[in-house]
Amino acid sequence: MTADDLVTLRRDLHRKPEPAWREFYTTARIVDELESRLGDDLAELHVGPEAIAGDHRLAVPEETEFTHWYEQARDAGVDDATLERLDGGYTGAVAVLERGEGPTVGLRVDIDGLPQTESDDPSHRPVAEGFRSDHEGAMHACGHDAHATIGIGVLERIAESDFAGTFKVFFQPAEEVVGGGKAMAESDHLQDVDSLLAVHIGLDHPTGEIVAGIDGFLAVSHLEAEFTGASSHAGGHPEQGRNAVQAMATAVQNLYGIPRHNDGATRVNAGVVEGGSAANVIPAEARIVAEVRGETTDLMEYMKGRTRQVLRSAAAMHDCEVEIEIGAEAPSATSDEELVSIVADVAGETPGVERVLERDELGGSEDATYLMQAVQENGGSACYVGVGTDHPGGHHTATFDVDEASIQHGIDTLAGTIERLGHDQ
Amino acid sequence: MTADDLVTLRRDLHRKPEPAWREFYTTARIVDELESRLGDDLAELHVGPEAIAGDHRLAVPEETEFTHWYEQARDAGVDDATLERLDGGYTGAVAVLERGEGPTVGLRVDIDGLPQTESDDPSHRPVAEGFRSDHEGAMHACGHDAHATIGIGVLERIAESDFAGTFKVFFQPAEEVVGGGKAMAESDHLQDVDSLLAVHIGLDHPTGEIVAGIDGFLAVSHLEAEFTGASSHAGGHPEQGRNAVQAMATAVQNLYGIPRHNDGATRVNAGVVEGGSAANVIPAEARIVAEVRGETTDLMEYMKGRTRQVLRSAAAMHDCEVEIEIGAEAPSATSDEELVSIVADVAGETPGVERVLERDELGGSEDATYLMQAVQENGGSACYVGVGTDHPGGHHTATFDVDEASIQHGIDTLAGTIERLGHDQ
Amino acid sequence: MTADDLVTLRRDLHRKPEPAWREFYTTARIVDELESRLGDDLAELHVGPEAIAGDHRLAVPEETEFTHWYEQARDAGVDDATLERLDGGYTGAVAVLERGEGPTVGLRVDIDGLPQTESDDPSHRPVAEGFRSDHEGAMHACGHDAHATIGIGVLERIAESDFAGTFKVFFQPAEEVVGGGKAMAESDHLQDVDSLLAVHIGLDHPTGEIVAGIDGFLAVSHLEAEFTGASSHAGGHPEQGRNAVQAMATAVQNLYGIPRHNDGATRVNAGVVEGGSAANVIPAEARIVAEVRGETTDLMEYMKGRTRQVLRSAAAMHDCEVEIEIGAEAPSATSDEELVSIVADVAGETPGVERVLERDELGGSEDATYLMQAVQENGGSACYVGVGTDHPGGHHTATFDVDEASIQHGIDTLAGTIERLGHDQ
Amino acid sequence: MTADDLVTLRRDLHRKPEPAWREFYTTARIVDELESRLGDDLAELHVGPEAIAGDHRLAVPEETEFTHWYEQARDAGVDDATLERLDGGYTGAVAVLERGEGPTVGLRVDIDGLPQTESDDPSHRPVAEGFRSDHEGAMHACGHDAHATIGIGVLERIAESDFAGTFKVFFQPAEEVVGGGKAMAESDHLQDVDSLLAVHIGLDHPTGEIVAGIDGFLAVSHLEAEFTGASSHAGGHPEQGRNAVQAMATAVQNLYGIPRHNDGATRVNAGVVEGGSAANVIPAEARIVAEVRGETTDLMEYMKGRTRQVLRSAAAMHDCEVEIEIGAEAPSATSDEELVSIVADVAGETPGVERVLERDELGGSEDATYLMQAVQENGGSACYVGVGTDHPGGHHTATFDVDEASIQHGIDTLAGTIERLGHDQ
Fold first, then answer.
1. Which domains does chain D have, with CATH numbers?
2. CA D219 to chain centre
3. Is C383 a known ligand-binding residue?
4. Over residues B14-27, mean pLDDT
5. What is the predicted pLDDT for the residue at A425?
């Protein structure tokens, strides 16, 4: 792909951001691009339910949420045959090249957008150059448009190289809700992967910088607690109520007070709360949407256990019931040294790359860790690569954008690494 | 009015419940009924902005809330001239009889419905007999349809009697949100009232029982607190957030812990809470809708003062701002002994009344207290009368209904009392 | 007894205040006074273990607490024979007059002092006139010195009167810790009492005022909760601790938040808390000494039930155990109308009494209610009489004192009432 | 010193553990030992007020706490002249060797015991071999007896070596209360130190293991908060109280909820709390003794700032005052690479040392960091060395003991390092 091709593709995807499990247009566009560029070179192309283990999808929205996005993709020209394959929120794709004897190497890129309204400031480049989001309220504010583009670029490069072995690209949906990683990790396609690469652009690193191996993924778990008590008239019979808001407040206070842990960083957040119906009614219902994180999966499990205990005791204290639902989760993971040094080596020779950092910490969460962990448990190795890009706004903000020059840096570094893996082993 | 007339009128009002400040149909129907029944006997008939002190309306909804109810009233046949008088949520009416030398006596009845869906159970009489609410989601679940009917019935009775003096009926809007009492109390119409009666049906008293003087109104104040902090990524930078949900939870815990008071009963309730935007974002916004009550107005003020202090300190603790808005309020009040004994006397002689209780406690709040207080401060006396009625469901529940026989008990007791006031003095 | 005798006796007792269950000198002094004044007129004089049901003593201090007070009483001249009868904290006395056929009337007075240091201000009359407490840190700051004096004065008066029946005076120990009432109520001496009077001086009523029947005793229960968790190094392994102070703080926050009750006043107080061992150790132990009260015994039980629930849930939340011990308790009680009106009548004729209040509310707790309740359950009647006295400082404060003139008012009113009971029935 | 000498000295110190700022016997014993072993070889020997900057002592106990330990030291044979130099809690010593041209090297050892009762189990070696603590309730449970012994052993070794330069040993008092480090760091003796070594025995490393450079000291600060409100009768006038225990509980709940920080580990602990006077009194006083820690000094300051904010807001919420006193503090620190590698090198050649770890994390706090920081700020370098020892019980527990063989490992490794510093530079 020429530099222009990369920009065109990335901008097309940027215009059509789709949130988790609703990547209908995006998946179709990727499939089209792969078929037109690689055609018969592709040994396999798995789409939607064939690409993922559907039962392991997490954070899938209500059925009613799909229709709008489904119709919109059809309006944007996606053909019905493709759309039907994705129906019900089975998005994503896995593309496979078979190039003879050699290791099986995987590359994971994520493809979903965010529920964020894009800036309409004339100085925001997507506005200035006409590729701002067509989907009001949705935005590629984390660079997954560039990730998908990199995935296709690397596939083409490997197809043209003398790489020996099998190469798979995992176009993963629903990363932003920690929803798609597990479904992809549980699919058959990952079982035989010897080396897995994942990639993220930006992360506060400037254009020209490559981080060979990113670590410090916080394992994460979402929880939702529904407290149920009984309402009563707040003036007439306060004692007859079983106050769900008191239970919720007691829980919030104590959730943030879960002891810090000597083994490493932990996090907890009661991110959304609500409860009650009217000023003069003792509240019978309240809800907390929370998340916990840990520097290791064990630390996350520690936080999850203590969170349940707090929620249950707070309910019991105020004579309420509580139902706790565990939502999306992702484990922690570490980049393997052997892959990190190959990436670092290759990056050092990549044109435009001026600085290579061996390691850096993410400090957030990512469900690529599901895939990394699965490969590592099978005896393979994994590495999460950071590709610097000048980004005017922070990740997940309205003015995020990428420096499109860095897309080539990502393709070169990853393809170079994969080629080396297909020679050396 | 014949028994049939009373039932017909009450059922028509029951079919068209309208919430606070949206009593367009109800006000118009009352005006029609008064004009057709009393015609020139009415010395004055003040409607909408002429009936109330508009600036003192409390808990007025947003402009946009009116349209639906306004149009609906028009569709139900209310003429444009009347509707225009009520435009912008100026509802209610004051009707005046002038009957020569004598005291000025007032009767206050409230007319609004509740945001409650009425039962559609076939055994619910309004269903069985075809007068269930036409307005899905709204309901006369507190008997104000009967109160309005009583108001008209008493007017007609006094018009036909040899009562000497001036008699005014206050058809008050927006009682359910503690919103209309103050506006009516501040109007000129109340200034010259020597004796004020107010009435409520039900209150767990059966048909055939009259409570001559109800006391124990808790003074009440609604408060709304908006906490504003700053969001941050809950995994990446929890320390950069200023957590409005922590502030809110701290406040809730401490609101319920405001010390009990030796001077009498107090209440506090955080009836509605909400905050935050997503599991992985430190919440920047949170809200509490609360109310406090006191057995006396002073006790309510004590609770209000402590509530402010808790809210402000909880905000400061978590580096948040808080904006506190005082909403609707009503004072406490007491029924005057001289009126209570006249009512008790008259009730004892009223056909169908089998039991008269001198006094009972309401244990809730009511903004009739604004009118009672105003009259008492002017040197007049006031009395809140309870008219028993068998009600299958509790007040404010979907199966509430009244025994229509009790409407006549109310009219007889009140009219009898008023007549006596117009003779004895 | 002459006015001088009364003052001398009261001042002697005032100089020797003894806290609950340590009234060694006080009991001995009462016994001496009774024996010297009444001698053979006394049908029975029960002392210490014979006066009370020892197994029902509440809030008894540790054995080691007795020695100091025991020795001090010996040093003050109490003979060994008497002291031995009181050994181990069995204090108090019951004196009985038998005067032929007639009702059995009881009078209960309490005799213990408080752990309060008496003012040494020269303007404090006990200082000025030389009868300030000899026992530094203890004080008759609630008038029980006057009560004991009244008890003896009434006995002498009845002995000299033509009262027909049996008259008993209950000199009750340990009222201040709600400790002696139950033990006296469970003794045999109360079983046959037809009418019981109890008396309190002061209570914010001035000299010359008598309250014929005091009500509004709050039922009270003391609770002690011991939280046990596990300590750990607060820097090294905070996660290994099970934090008893966090459990305690959660409990305190929620105790004060127990819902108010529509049936009447309730109270809760975490009066003493402590926990932890060092700044750098996660606390393994914490303790709350709390009390709950209710306008009725049921309301107190409601508070007690909710308190247990809060304590247990707070412990569970922080992985701690909690042991809850119920301490001293007293029920609520009401003065019977028939006795109240006799007292009011008599008081109205008593020299020096200028104002008689039929009823007033105590608003606190008193374990005389155990005796009142026991008599009432046996079909008898009971009445708690208030004797006004000008007191410069509030009850339980360092400058409390009584106007000694009121002692005679108490004797006259009570003796007059008892005489009337011994004639009329 | 022979192996026997080392054991004899260490056991003598073990028998006489003295808590912070009361190391009268210990200081005297060190002075004696130094004078008898080194005599005129010592260029300087600073004792008590001359060894430390007295104004910078932290966590100094009340005057009354000294007497017992002072007298006990006299009884143990310390001469009055020496004792007088230490009067008022000025303990510790600095010994100086001057050996010509060369760098100034320092060694810091701490000398205080702990308020911990030593095990009397016959299997506890100090019991079995007769050197259990003579001071009931105090114990060398952290190995400072061995540290002092190592300090003297190294001094003797350097005196006998061909080290060129100046060598100082800092016998630091009051480490356990984070009290002596600052006073020693602020003394003149540290100003010219080019290289500073500190040493700790044990830390879960077995005999034969040396950690060349320990890092991960958590900066620490102690805080004490006194809440003052107003008491009132909990039954009679709960509303008149200003409840210091409610303020304290609100603070505790929110202290543990201070947000975690992305820059590294933080800690908070409300280690001791107390409040209130009696079950029936609204508590007017409450106290929290807390500590905060941070992986860096900045993180500790962050926690301290938030702690103040929580304490103040909790007081304001309940109408109380709060006085906050900052107690002992210690910064964080890092071992310098250049020293670490010398220590590692030397340790590798030390007889008995089987394993050398380049680095390890302490995970706790230490006020040696004051000295390390001071030296590093002056341009020098510092290193904290861990000397493994088999210890049957954990640090700060009743069965802690050291394997005396490791004392020689410490002396050899430290003396070897110091000699090399006195040659190479």
1. 3-217+333-424 (3.40.630.10), 219-330 (3.30.70.360)
2. 13
3. no
4. 97
5. 45
